[in-house]
Each structure stands twice: as structure tokens, then as C-alpha cells.
Amino acid sequence: xxxxxxxxxxxxxxxxxxxxxxxxIIQNLKNTNNLDFKFEQNIxxxxxxxxxxxxxxxxxxxxxxxxNNKILVSNxxxxxxKTRVSYYRYPLNKTPLNLILDKNxxxxxxxxxxxxxxxxxxxxxxxxxxxxxxxxFFDNQTYDLIGWQNTDIYQNFNITFLSSIRKNRVLSKDxxxxxxQN
Length: 182
Known about the structure:
This protein is of the alpha+beta class and 182 residues long. The chain contains 3 helices and 11 strands; from the N terminus they run αββββββααβββββ. It has an 11-stranded antiparallel sheet with strand order 6-5-4-3-2-1-11-10-9-8-7, with no helix packed on it.
């Protein structure tokens, strides 16, 4: 009988702890209007890095280091990837970034999902939405978004890690302006 009481107590404490972590992640997202960070991105083994700024909802600007002046920009409707020699424009709603950059979508999904703690450092939520599987990762201490894993529109496996995160800074309104084609 005592063993059952201990097991029930353990399950209650674990569930309560996960619920508190989820609440802190949600509150942190609600309090975040924008963030900038360094990133490392691994797409099918090709590693790139640089700096990004996200402004909710659905805006992002990334400059890649050492890569033909590559930038990635979303104004909330379109996503552009531009280099010195190429220019690609996509409807944002056809890409996984449409979901990743939508904090209200993330908050609503996190409410319904069970988080998984990895190595006592990361909290992972697996989101399945419209033929997309997106794994979102948060820091277990700061509750900040620290990365995601998904398959892009070309069926490439993409892992993005964030570091040096700063939140709620004053941003230029022109930052998310879609660049002109070459």
C-alpha cells in the first residue's frame, strides 16, 4: 500500500512540475514581443550561422555569415531568401516558419501538449500541424525559445539552435521590409 502512495505522489509531483514549466514558458512567450539572437542552422548536414531578429507575429530577418550576403526576411506574409546570385520568394503560410513565428499558435499548442524534458536542460514540444512536424525547444532555466527542428518546403531536415538571446529591444520598422529582386 505504501508503494502505491509513493508512486501516486511521484506522479502528482512530476505532473505538477511539468505544468509549472509549461506555464512559465507560456508566460515568457506572452511577454516577448521580439527577440534577436545568434543562430546555427544544420540543413541536411550543411551548417550555416548568423544573426536573426524575430518580431511577433510572423516577422523575421536573418543575416548569414560568410555566405554570398545571404539574408532571409519575412514581413508576415512573404518569405524571401536572397543571395548575391539568387532570389526566392514564398508565401509564408506555405512554410513551417509560418507556425514557428506565430507565438499565439505556439502558446495555444503548448497548452494542449505534454512537454518532454531532455537532459534536464531542454523542454521539447512536438507539434503536428498540416503535414508539418515541428519540434520546438525551450531552455529549462530561462524558458526562452532556443531552437526548432522541422522539414522545410524542399523536404530538407532543418535544425536551428539559438544563442545570445535578447528580448524586447527597439527595432527599426524597415528591418522586415522585403528586399527587391536582384
